[in-house]
Amino acid sequence: xxxxxxxxxxxxxxxxxxxxxxxxxxxxxxxxxxxxxxxxxxxxxxxxxxxxxxxxxxxxxxxxxxxxxxxxxxxxxxxxxxxxxxxxxxxxxxxxxxxxxxxxxxxxxxxxxxxxxxxxxxxxxxxxxxxxxxxxxxxxxxxxxxxxxxxxxxxxxxxxxxxxxxxxxxxxxxxxxxxxxxxxxxxxxxxxxxxxxxxxxxxxxxxxxxxxxxxxxxxxxxxxxxxxxxxxxxxxxxxxxxxxxxxxxxxxxxxxxxxxxxxxxxxxxxxxxxxxxxxxxxxxxxxxxxxxxxxxxxxxxxxxxxxxxxxxxxxxxxxxxxxxxxxxxxxxxxxxxxxxxxxxxxxxxxxxxxxxxxxxxxxxxxxxxxxxxxxxxxxxxxxxxxxxxxxxxxxxxxxxxxxxxxxxxxxxxxxxxxxxxxxxxxxxxxxxxxxxxxxxxxxxxxxxxxxxxxxxxxxxxxxxxxxxxxxxxxxxxxxxxxxxxxxxxxxxxxxxxxxxxxxxxxxxxxx
Length: 511
Fold this sequence. Notes:
Elements: E1 4-10, H1 16-23, E2 30-33, H2 48-53, E3 63-65, E4 70-71, E5 101-103, E6 106-108, H3 115-128, E7 131-132, H4 157-169, E8 174-175, E9 178-179, H5 211-216, E10 225-228, E11 231-238, E12 245-252, E13 255-266, H6 270-279, E14 304-311, E15 324-326, E16 342-345, H7 351-354, H8 364-372, E17 374-381, E18 390-394, E19 397-401, H9 407-424, E20 435-440, E21 476-478, H10 493-510
Parallel strand pairs: 1-2, 1-13, 2-10, 3-19, 13-21
Antiparallel strand pairs: 3-4, 5-6, 7-9, 8-15, 11-12, 12-13, 14-17, 14-20, 15-16, 16-17, 18-19
C-alpha cells in the first residue's frame, strides 16, 4: 500500500469532505482517512425509534463533563461526518458577526478576516451544497453577490398561516436556506420528496446535500484520490525540530499504519481535532501540537440551543416543516439592546421523538395528540468564547469542561417568542392560551461545536493563521469548526464549508 501522498485529509465532514472535493482536481495525490464507515442505506434511516430512541447513528463513546459525570455525545463517525444527520440549514453568518459585538455577558471578538473576504466562498458553498433560499426577506441578511442557486422551499398550509400571522404581527419571517435536492416545479425530477424524516435523520434516498453525497462520492474513484474508511488517526508525528508533520499514526481496521504527506489537513470536528493535537504531544510540543499559546482545546463553543413545542387546538398536518426562520431579535430589540439569537422551525416531531422527554407514565395517545397539534421551533443563541471552556484528554478520557454563559439574551428570546406565538394563535377554543413547552439542549448536544483551535494573526492568542495553518508547524492545517473565534447565532455548517473552499483554493494556488 502506498504510504506517502501530497495531501492527507483526516475526516470527511463539512470541512474535510469539502476540501477533498476542492483539491481532487489538482492532480496531486490525496489520502483521505475516515474513522467511520459509509452510513448504511437501510430502513432504519427513517425510523424514529432507531434514530432518536436508540441513537443508532451516534457514537457509543462516553465522555466526561467538568464534574466527572458521563456524557453520551450526540455525534457520529461516518463518511460525511455529522452532515449525514444534520438538518441542512445552511445560513451565512451575519456581516456584524465578523466584528466585535458587545453582548449582555461580555464581548464576542472580532475575526481576523471579514465577511467580505468570505462572501464569494459562501456563494461557492451554496452551489456545492444545493442551497435553496430567497434573498431580500431576512432583516439581518448580509450582502450577497449572487442569488441563491435554487428557489426557496414552499411552506405547507399550517406553516404558511403562521408566516402570515408573524408578518401581520410586524416581524419579518424568511425562508430557511436549505441544502436539499428538491425540485418543486417538476416533482418527477426531484430527488427529495419533502418527507418528515429529514432533520436529525439520515436520508434514505440520498436527497440531502451532505459532505458524503455532494463531495466524497463524486471524487472517490479518481486515480489520485484514496479513501480509507475505518482508519483512525491516533497521533501526528513531527520531525526532530518539531516544525513539520512527518507521519500520521493510523489504526486501519485496528492495525497500526503510518502515512505521510507534504501537507496534512485535520478535519475531525472541533472537539476531536483538538484532541488529536493534545494526544500528539511530544518533546518539542509537550502540551500538545502547536500549543505554545495554550489555546489548543480552549474557547470551546456549542451555541445556546433549545427546542420548543408550541401546542394549540389547531392540527398540524405538515410533513416538511423546516421552512421558516426569524432573526428580528438577532441583535436585540427596543427592550434589550444586546443580541438574542435566531428562531427557526425544526423537522416535525412525533410521539417517539417526544417519549424520552415525557414522564414515564405519559400515554402514547397523549403524545400523539401533542405531536399532531404542535409546531416545533428551534432557538439558537451565541455562547461566548471562554478560556476555561475547553476540551481535555485526561488519562485516556475525553473531557469537556464547559460552563454555560451569555444566557440572559437567549432566555429573553425564548420567552418573547413564546409570547408572540400565544398572541398570534387567536382561535383557541378550549385552552386559555397555547402551551409552549421548551427544553434547552444539554452539553451532549455538540452538533454546533466550534472554536477549539481559533485562527488569528497573533501566535500568542491563536493556534492557526488566517489560512488555517498552525503557527508553529509548517505543513499542518485545520479545516473544520475549530477555527471560529466566535460562534454567532446561526448554524455553523455553511461557514465551515465556505472556509474549506477558501483554504482549498489557497493550497491549490501554492502549487
